[in-house]
Design goal:
367 residues; mainly alpha; 15 helices
């Protein structure tokens, strides 16, 4: 027998760490020479502009509600315009001494929206709670009950109006969009044609046109002496507009369901509505959660267009309050930035909630 000589294998290099901040920077910012060059260029711009922006927005800014202090040399942003006009921005033309009413109404409605997004509150009594809170909202805003003075809807404005239009239009447009999406896939030509015409007609015009028609043209076709409040007309217009877009999002989810599942449900003796409720819709809606939330965010921002029909929501109330005062008019940009921050907080919150919903509905796919 020949003796075998042991030969050691050369040591291999240690595995590269693929987790942690350093690994992320190497993979995403310094991956190759093109990525590294882009990182250096963008970092240079940030190092040059970010300190200037921070200096203007915070370090040299004026925070007191005094327009003369904002005109001093070396003063950056004038956030005093927000401190001076915040009540007009938040509550619009609502009577000054009665603004505690929209404050309480907004807190109630916002709390209800937050509670509706938490699973522990998904109980059979939640729809009843919606009715109670909405009744309390309108009672506080309109008055004429429990000794409250009457405030017509044309004086509502600011944040309460924005949240009211966005929340009610989204709640009402979803079931309507669901029916329209199912109608577009119906085997009945009349229903399918009607739903198609509705979607194409609404999507073919901008929201401003819909609001203009609902506010100014629609009353011309009403019987003599019959008037519908402008807030209701605008709310219906936004709802119909949002429903057309959401119907197409839901229809995309319906088309993604394999036909074999519907045929299997038919062989089990399930009716059309049982098939849609138990098999098709749960899967279809789970697939299009990002699209639905994107439509929600778009509708929330589109409420700013109601200014054209003399309803001064958040953006309109800010413009009205600042432009009506010549001393603060030069600082309207700070007002727009403040409004943008409010919109960002709401929209970012909806976006994060959408990610949470996606994770919940996709748990079954991760098993």
């Amino acid at each position: 027998m020949t003796a075998t000589t042991f030969q050691s294998i050369p040591a291999r290099p240690a595995p590269v760490n693929t987790e942690g901040p350093v690994a992320w920077v190497k993979a995403n910012l310094l991956g190759d020479w093109k990525t590294t060059l882009s990182t250096v260029i963008v970092s240079g711009f940030l190092l040059w502009y970010v300190p200037q922006i921070l200096n203007w927005a915070f370090f040299t800014a004026s925070w007191i509600p005094n327009f003369e202090a904002c005109r001093a040399d070396g003063v950056g942003a004038c956030w005093g315009v927000v401190a001076e006009k915040y009540r007009i921005i938040f509550f619009g033309r609502y009577p000054y001494e009665e603004q505690w009413r929209p404050l309480i109404a907004t807190i109630l409605l916002t709390s209800l929206l937050v509670a509706s997004c938490i699973r522990v509150f998904w109980k059979p009594w939640l729809p009843l709670l919606w009715l109670v809170v909405l009744a309390a909202f309108f009672a506080l805003m309109y008055g004429k009950v429990m000794g409250l003075t009457q405030v017509d809807t044309d004086r509502w404005g600011g944040l309460p109006l924005t949240i009211l239009l966005a929340s009610l239009s989204l709640v009402m447009c979803f079931p309507l969009a669901l029916v329209i999406a199912l109608g577009r896939r119906s085997n009945l030509p009349a229903i399918r044609s009607f739903c198609t015409i509705y979607v194409e007609l609404i999507r073919g015009v901008p929201l401003i046109s819909v609001l203009f028609m609902a506010s100014f043209m629609f009353p011309l076709f009403m019987p003599q002496g019959l008037q519908i409040d402008v807030l209701i007309r605008v709310l219906v217009g936004i709802t119909l507009f949002a429903a057309a877009y959401m119907a197409e999002v839901i229809r995309g989810g319906l088309q993604a369901i394999p036909k074999g599942q519907v045929e299997a449900a038919a062989t089990l003796g399930l009716s059309y509505w049982q098939t849609q409720r138990k098999i098709v819709l749960p899967q279809a809606l789970a697939m299009v959660v990002p699209g639905i939330m994107n439509n929600f965010i778009s509708t929330f921002k589109d409420t700013s267009l109601v200014t054209i029909v003399s309803l001064y929501e958040l953006t309109g109330a800010m413009k009205m309050g600042v432009n009506s005062d010549a001393n603060w008019r030069p600082y309207i940009m700070e007002g727009y930035l403040f409004i943008a921050l409010i919109y960002f907080i709401f929209c970012f919150s909806m976006s994060r909630y959408s990610h949470w919903v996606e994770k919940q509905v996709n748990k079954s796919k991760l098993r």
